[in-house]
Request: fold
Amino acid sequence: AVCSIFVFAVCIWATLVVIAKIKDGAEIIPTLTTSWQVWTALISSSFTFLVRNRFLNYQSKKKSASDVARKKLAVKKLLASTARVLTGVLVFFIEIAAVFWLWNSIEIPSSANIDASISEAEQISSIPDVNHVEQQDFTNKLGMRMVFLTSGKFRNEQGEWTRLEVPCWISETEVSVAQYLLYLQEKQKSTFGSDSSANPDWFGDSPSSTFSLNGHPITGIDADEAKMFCSWLNDDAPAKIRYRLPTTKEWVCAYRGGTSSRFYWGESFNGNYANSKLQAVGDNSNSIEQVGRFPAPKRLEKHPWNIFDIAGNAWEFVDDNGSISMRGGSWQSTEESELAVTGVRKNSSASDDVGFRIVAYPSR
Reply:
């Protein structure tokens, strides 16, 4: 029984040492050593008691006709018990040798070491690039062309590799006045020229003035109103499609179009590709323009994924878990930095040069 307890203690101790090694728990080794000393003391006490008990039993057997036989039997039992204890000691040394061998041979790198030696960019370097798959584009009930982007890696606004985890569709153009009016008519039950309190500030008193702007991006609304528009689209959307504002990551990925330059068309600003006050050339009329004009179809160099007005014309809301900002610059921009992929404003309020585009994503 004593030998069995001894071997059991050794096995437990050896297992704990190996676990401590694997878990980088070197600080608990002193505790294990102390616990082993306690076990050793208990085993030693048990062995001393066993030997003493054997001799006392022997001495208590006095002077009978079978004293010699009893003495021989007691000696045999004592030798057998001693052999068991020595076997336990041998097993102990074997276990200790095994523990030291494991300690010196097993090297399991921790997650901290992995993170320190391999950057996120290196970890995703083997992932395919985000790409536009035209065959999976679709047109929604408002006639908005939705451009499909695969999941994969792309360069963020700092030029570092990052990952688009979930494929999505992003609208080819900003939401237009006509598309937003359909939302107002159907969802809010507002009508042209009646109950002006239900109409946004940009609506005006004359329907004719509004009709002339139907092809322009909707402006003068805040981020909450843009979210309500997305919620309205979700009411009649296919079961596996949901709409919302793009995240910064999605918007930057769409702006890039697979490029890595400051602007999607190159490193230098060119007014032919962004409607702004910075450089009024070509199609640039120095005022807000209809959606889909920049870059115009007649341009030889288009956006790589056929996305329009993502630089200039109107700032666009992006939503990162409730944190709203604006991207892309507008027709009022006078700084190149606003029209570059890094251009950003921290604002969610309405303005006459702020609009939005939408993203559709597969729901689970």
